[in-house]
């Protein structure tokens, strides 16, 4: 093949390629001209998505083709555990994952946020703080959350009625959300319940403790000389609720006393023991401790002995 033949072949190939492109170009032009123009609608919808955290886990059932649906639902009615969540392949369903992430976020918020500073003021509590200087220090140094500075001790002695039969304490603990959700109802409920037994406490004598661990009530007991100290504290949140509060009650508590000397009322929240109901029960316990001069396992032993 000489140079002339090669040139002719190249020209023929290029001519064929040009012919092949013409229909495609026409088709593209036609498609472009007939395509539906893109929408420029920028209207914002006022629709609001349902709050996924409001779904009752005891009633939510995502299992496909269950063998015994009614039996499964009966089991779920007894627990908020995540049963019957179903799956897609080897993975959880989208609804289950979103709920898990929402509950986990709520738990984190409860731990890392502070109680609304207006709450203790509105309730008329006496405000104090442990030796923790920040939330980070409170979480990393539990021992700092069990004691008070000399200045705070002096302020408690000056402002709180000494040697009371009942000393109430409210501590933020590990869930600010628990305190905000329950305290406004439980304090009046305890006061109302105590009237039946001829006992009482003044709201101005309730000590609010920021960055509080349970052991803070022991030093308060020593400082105030109260017969019984009852501490309401936010509990470590889980995926079921971030608003669970507990009451730790002790007769004549002292620093370093055995934990067995405390009586505990736990799971105080809407999905457990409601605040008002818990208040009535705590009032009954407070009366028993004042009369029997015992708490914890000693109180239980006295009750079993019929004292």
Broad CATH class of the largest domain: Alpha Beta
Q: What topology, given as strand order, has the largest sheet? A: 1-3-2-4-5-6
- Tell me what portion of residues adopts beta-strand conformation: 5-15%
Secondary-structure element string: HHHHEHHEHEHEEEHH
Largest sheet: 6 strands, mixed
Overall structural class, as computed from helix and strand content, comes to: alpha/beta
Provide the CATH topology of the largest domain.
Rossmann fold
The N- and C-terminal alpha carbons lie at a distance of: 122 Å
Radius of gyration from the CA trace?
A: 33 Å
Overall pLDDT score: 87
Corresponding CATH superfamily of the largest domain: Ethanolamine ammonia-lyase light chain (EutC)
Number of helices: 10
Q: Summarize the amount of helix as a percent range.
A: 40-55%
Number of separate strands: 6
What quaternary form is this? single chain
Shape: elongated
Low-confidence stretches: 24-35
Topology:
Elements: H1 3-34, H2 69-76, H3 94-112, H4 118-123, E1 126-129, H5 135-140, H6 150-159, E2 166-171, H7 176-195, E3 207-210, H8 216-224, E4 228-234, E5 245-251, E6 262-268, H9 275-292, H10 296-304
Parallel strand pairs: 1-3, 2-3, 2-4
Antiparallel strand pairs: 4-5, 5-6
Helix pairs in contact: 7-9
């Amino acid at each position: 093949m000489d140079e002339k033949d090669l040139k002719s072949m190249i020209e023929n190939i290029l001519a064929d390629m040009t012919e092949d492109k013409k229909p495609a170009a026409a088709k593209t032009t036609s498609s472009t001209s007939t395509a539906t123009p893109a929408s420029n609608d920028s209207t914002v919808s006022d629709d609001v998505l349902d709050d996924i955290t409001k779904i009752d886990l005891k009633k939510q059932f995502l299992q496909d083709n269950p063998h015994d649906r009614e039996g499964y639902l009966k089991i779920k009615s007894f627990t908020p555990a995540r049963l019957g969540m179903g799956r897609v392949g080897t993975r959880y369903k989208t609804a289950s994952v979103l709920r898990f992430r929402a509950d986990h976020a709520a738990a984190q918020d409860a731990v890392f946020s502070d109680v609304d500073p207006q709450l203790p003021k509105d309730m008329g509590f006496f405000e104090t703080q442990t030796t923790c200087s920040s939330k980070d220090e409170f979480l990393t140094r539990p021992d700092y959350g069990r004691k008070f500075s000399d200045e705070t001790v002096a302020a408690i002695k000056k402002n709180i009625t000494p040697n009371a039969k009942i000393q109430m304490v409210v501590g933020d603990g590990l869930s600010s959300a628990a305190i905000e959700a329950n305290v406004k109802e439980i304090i009046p409920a305890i006061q109302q319940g105590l009237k039946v037994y001829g006992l009482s406490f003044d709201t101005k004598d309730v000590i609010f403790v920021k960055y509080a661990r349970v052991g803070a009530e022991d030093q308060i007991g020593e400082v105030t000389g109260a017969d019984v100290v009852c501490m309401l504290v936010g509990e470590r949140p889980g995926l079921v609720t971030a608003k669970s509060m507990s009451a730790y009650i002790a007769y004549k508590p002292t620093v370093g006393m055995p934990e067995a000397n405390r009586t505990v009322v736990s799971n105080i929240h809407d999905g457990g023991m409601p605040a008002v109901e818990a208040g009535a029960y705590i009032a009954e316990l407070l009366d028993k401790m004042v009369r029997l001069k015992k708490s914890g396992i000693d109180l239980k032993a006295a009750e079993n002995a019929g004292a």
